[in-house]
Each structure stands twice: as structure tokens, then as C-alpha cells.
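Re: [help] complex structure
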Amino acid sequence: MRAFAALVTQLGYTRSRNAKVALIADYLRATPDPDRGWALAALTGEADFSAVKASAVRTMAMERVDPELFRLSRDFVGDTAETVALIWPETATPTNDLRLADAVDAFATVSRARAPALLADYMDRLDSEGRYALIKLATGAMRVGISARLAKTAFAQAFGLDVDAVEEVWHALAPPYASLFAWGEGGPRPDPEGTPYFRPFMLAHPLEDGTVDLADYAAEWKWDGIRIQIVRIGDQVKLFSRGGDDITLAFPDIAQHMPVEGVFDGELLVRGEAQMGEAASFNALQQRLGRKTVSAKMLAEAPAFVRLYDLLIDGREDLRSLPWHIRRTRLEAKVPALPADRFDLSQVIEAADFVELGRIRDGARDAAIEGVMLKRRDSLYVPGRRVGLWYKWKRDPLTADCVMMYAQRGSGKRSSFYSDYTFGCWNDEGELVPVGKAYSGFSDSELKWLDKFVRQNTVNRFGPVREVEKSLVLEVAFDSIHESKRHKSGIAMRFPRIARLRRDKPASEADTVAALRAFIT
Amino acid sequence: MNASPHWIEPFPHGIYVRPADAWIDPSRPVPRALITHGHADHARGGHQAVWATPETLDIINLRYGRYDGENAVGYGESVDLNGVQVSFHPAGHVLGSAQIRLEYQGETVVVTGDFKRRPDPSCAPFELVPCDIFITEATFGLPVFRHPPTPDEIAKLIAMLEAHPQGCVLVGAYALGKAQRVIAELRDAGFNDPIYLHGALEKMCALYADHGIDLGELRPVAGTDKSELMGRIILAPPSALADRWSRRLPDPVTAMASGWMRVRARARQRGVELPLIISDHADWDELTQTIRDVGPREVWVTHGREEALLRWCQLHQIRARALALVGREDEDDA
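Output below.
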């Protein structure tokens, strides 16, 4: 536990990506199985113990510390796990004799009721670094500034493997990854043959200002749904979201209707009422994500289908090392074998040149179209984003001038800054009503300015929320607008972010709710 | 609290000692001031007559100039101001820092100023002064603040330097007190290499040396070749860490010596890679232990996280009140 705690602490203070990779790699080489496997699972977000929740941590702390002193401390520190780790009364010198794997085994089998006592017992044996790392591990929320990809890169580097080769088998394995480490140390490559496992998606870069030659690139619509991978081997079918999460149970209407073996890449969409064939909004899909069961009503009201983009594996033949145009031909040949109400083909857009393509893109009316995808005709299917292979060319975002109404402090490294802003527009009665909330899009120096503005213009406080003088206009960019019952204005923005601070503009000239309603899709 | 004003009365800008017509650490100019120590939020300019320890007066003279009437009062010495017996006792915070003891008509009050209990080779150790009313700071008055043993933190600093021979370690440290203490602690740990200083630290280090604090060999960063700075410890005020000034250094690891480094977000916000929890203020355990040791009838809390300390007093059935003085900073990292 001591080495893992030291790693977590060091990662928290290390800025450079290479230095983080080196720290993790050193740890993985120096630590025995199965501890290092559990550490890797924690860093990649795959360690999850259903009995140990944040509430267990709080319950445990309250038994040792005065609740009022805890509350005051939590307010100051800004993170419950860290507060508990720091505030925990040390009775004697901690022994630090806990093994990571032993803690993991105990967390996996403990009951919800027993969890606080188990944790408390461990807390007594650890120093503050150890307590912090253990709570983060137990609650499955490391947040030490590294992505799963970075942890895998570190693993690959530690053992001289190729990270894409690691990624390829990763999703067929489970913690503590004994076969993976054995491979790293010269053993055979783990063989996931015969199981339906996730293959990392190929992703696109945004096409900034450049153009591409349509002789080299094919164009397709970019659909505004959920990217999905459908895997069938034998009679087992699995659906995976972009990050590799298993979403099979949320979409039985897809999983039960894939008749052929293979691995498909597509966009999950739902049909809107009375617009057969057209995709309904993204919101309808969100309601189904993360569910373990789906009601018959939901299946009937928002039936899902997949618009297919690519064929990775045909039967059992891996096509990923073939060029896109060949995979496309194979996909087109495959589609007639699939039920037409569940699967269709994402059409290639025919355009004479790039200028015409731009016109087609701007003229697209379908709400489910986010923009255009450009794929190099000879591109192999490679995981992640590679320069020059695939581009996404989104429609320009919509913008509105809104007025800042409330602000709230951020978390993590923003815990001292007012960085979350609720903004509003004018309604017909001449009142400002909230239309959205944004916490990105500004630079560090703009954040400092905004934080100062909030502190100097506070008119009211509601717990952590400050109401501010309604004087600052924010130009907000967003992808689309929908009806919503959550806001008094009756509308909600998709992916709002602060585009510009309009310190030049008086609040009275901000946009109206009526003007925003015109954007509803 | 009481209907008739006590002979010592707190105001937002300082503590007033009525019979002596004197203010303790006032934040605006007054005719008569008693000053606990030389930090800017306690020692303001513009007073007519001032009572402080000789070391504190030297520090004030170096930083802000002179007052018209300066009265040096050594540790343990006592002066009579209109019937109030005033004496100064070591607070263990920085060189010259004092607790001020006031006695009037049989009642004793101690104002701690800022203080700490743990050993510090750069100043006199805290002295326990019994009293009826104990007026204490609470900068680190939350139970999450428990400063680790200083030698462990110094060992981390030396280990980082050894692990990073092609670069240097840049330590942010408050110019008065913290910088000299870090140097003195390094010397105590047997680190005898020259230590390099940002220009803003030079004069205060010289003043400490004049007062007999051995800081070993110190060299200015200014005018020193980049290659000579490799493998060195460099001290600078915290404001210089992210400043263009630090670009002249060879691949610096940024460290910071402050009690706030106990909280990760505080360290990360400043881009600190090596947090060193070294504080010149009492931590939670020291604050609560000191209140127990002094055993006063009443505790008044001047500044910091007073809410939590009041809560602790309430849980331990000790009478306490908050004074809410203005202008006090969380100075441990300034």
C-alpha cells in the first residue's frame, strides 16, 4: 500500500505527461502481482466496489470526528476523501502494513453495512498519504490527473510493448491482469479468442480551417447520437460505448437483433415519432444510457436503431488492416443480411468538390446531423486519433449573448475559483431567467478575471452559490437547443461553453428567450 | 459579552488597551502601538510611539523605515504604561516575535500574535505564559492541519535535489522568517552546500546572520551562471515561483514551504511539484494543546479559521469568542 500511496501522491503533483508515464512504469516494474494489477485497475478506472461508497467514507469519519468540525474542514479542503485522510485522528504511529491486494479482496466481499468499520480499521493502520490513496481506491474515483490511455501507455512502456497491441487485448481481460503482466515479462500474448470483447474505436480530428481533396477523402454525415460498437461471436452479442463501457442491457432492441458474427461500428439513434427513418434527438438516447433494464414503454416510444459506419471484423476475419474503401464495400455487402428496421447504412455524400460539400453541409436540415465526416479512402482502422486519416467537420456552433446570474466554485484544482456560471436571457415579462450553465471555454486569465468579478459583484449567497449583479454579458456557444422542464425558461442548451466575455455589451442588450426558442430542433 | 467595556477591547482594526491608551498590532496609524512581530499585517507604518522587541524593531527598520518613538523591550522585560504592566515573551514564530503579556488590577491577558510550538533554529522558542484571558491566532485552526515533523520535510527536499542533479530545486518561502528557517533547518540537517537566493531575500538573511543565526554560505542568483545553479537549492519569495524570473534557472523543480501545502489543491493551484509542509504557525494540535496548557478562564480568537477553534472550545467547555480583526492575512505563504 505504501508504494501505491506514494505513486498516487507523486502523480498528483507531477505535471509533465512523460514524467507521469515514467512514475507509473517504475511502479509497475517494481511491484509484485497482484498488487500492481489492482493499482493499474484503479488508475484506469476499472476497480469498482459496489459496497464502498462515498457515504460509507462519511459515515466512518463521523464516528471519529465532530460533525461540525468535519463540515468546516470539508468546506475548506474541497474534497471529502482528502478531508477524511487529513482529519483522521492518528492514535499511534501508523504501521503502514496493509497490502493493496488484501484491501481489494476485502472491499470486494464486504457488505454495505460493514464497509465503514472495515475502512476505519484500515485508516488506523495507514498514514495520511495511505489513507488518501485507500479512500480513492475504495470509492473508485482516483482523479489523479491521468487517463486510462496514459496508464496503458505506462504499462506498455514498462515492459517494452506497443500500446496499441495492449489496447487490443485490454478489454478482454479483467483485473488484476495476471496474464497481461505475464505477457509483459516474456510470456505469451493473452488470447481472448471466443469472447465478445471491445476493440478501441478509431476517432477523428476536427477539421480546423483546412480543406481536403475529395479524391482522397470520402464524406459521410456525422450523426448526433451515441457511437456504438456491436460485437457478435457465436451467439454472444455485446454493445459497447465509445469508452468501452458495456451498454448491452440498455439496448436489447439492438442486441437481440444482430443476426451475424462480426464487429460493427456505427451510431446509435432513436426514431422520432411520425418521422420514420429520421433520427430523433440525442436527449431521448441519454435517458436509456446507463440503465440495466428498459421498460416496454420506452422501447415502444423511442425505438433504437444503428446507422452503420464501418465493419471491423467480418465473421471472424479481421478487416482492420484493410483500407477504408474495401471495408466499406464489405459493409455494404453485409447490410442486406441485417434487419432493416434495426440497422441501416450511413450514406456516403456525393459532392463534386469541397466547396459543394460545404454547401451540402450548411444546407442540412436534419437535427440529427452534427456535421460531416471526412475519411481517407485508404485509411486502415487504427485506434484513437491519427493525424490526416479521419476528420470531423462540424456545423458552426450557435451562439447567444447571455447574462451571468449565479456562480459556484469548481472542484479539484479549481476549488478556489468561481468557475461554474449560470446565465440567463430576458423573457417576455422583462425578467432574466436561467437558460444554461457553463464551466469551460475561457482561458486561465479570463477565469481569474471572472473569479474576481464574482467576488466583487456578489449580491446574495445561497450556500456555495453566489448570486451576482446582473451586469456581465457572456457570449455562449452551444451545439443545439431543446425543450426542457429543468429551467424556468423552458429551454436547455446542449454543450454550452463560454465563447467570449462581452464586457463591452450592456446586459439589457443580451438575447431574449424568444430568440433562443427559434433555434429549437 | 459584558455590559461595561473590559479594559482590553477588540476593534476590527486592532486590540485596544484602554488604561494604557495603546493598541496591539493596529492596522491603521495610532499614537501608541505594541507590536508582536515584523510581518506586514501586524507591523504597519505611521504610529507615533511603538513598543516591540529589539529584533522586531530592527526588522521593521529594514523593511519599512523608522517610527518617531521606538521603545525596545527585550524578552522577559517589563514596562509600566499607565498602570498596565506590559512584558514581551517569545512566540516562536519568527525572529523577535513576541507574545505580549498585560497585567492590570490583578487580571492577566496574553496576546499571542502569531506563534508556533515546535523547534525552530532561527528564533527563540515559544514560552508558556499563564493568564486569565488568552488571545490566540488560528491561522491553521482546522483539524485537517497537522504539520508533519520538520526534519522529514527537509529530508524530502534534500532527496529531491539528489534525484535531480541536472536541474535545481526552487523553494518558495516567505521572505521574513520562513526563508531563514528553511536555510537553518537545512544546515541542521547537515546540508553545507551554498544556498542561492532571490534578491528579495538577501537583506533579511543578512539581518538574521547579524543576530547570530548561522545560515552558512549564501549566494545571490543574480549574476550567477546557469550551469553553476545546477544541483543547487534556490530560495525565492512565493510570488517569484511562476514569474519570468524563474526562467533563468536550470530545469527547476518547484517546491514551496508552507503549512497550506497540507491541502493538495492549494499546492496544485500554485503549480507546486514538491510541497513542503513547513509552517511558522501552530497547527491544530498545537493550538488546542496550548489552550489546554495555558488553562485560561477565557479564549479570544483573533484571526484564521476561528469558527472551528470556537467549536473545539465549546466541545471542551472553555469560554471563547471570535474577534474578527480586519486586515490579517493567511500569511504563511503571503
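The interface with chain A takes residues 142-146, 262-269, 271-275, 305, 307-308, 311-312, 315 of chain B (CB under 8 Å).
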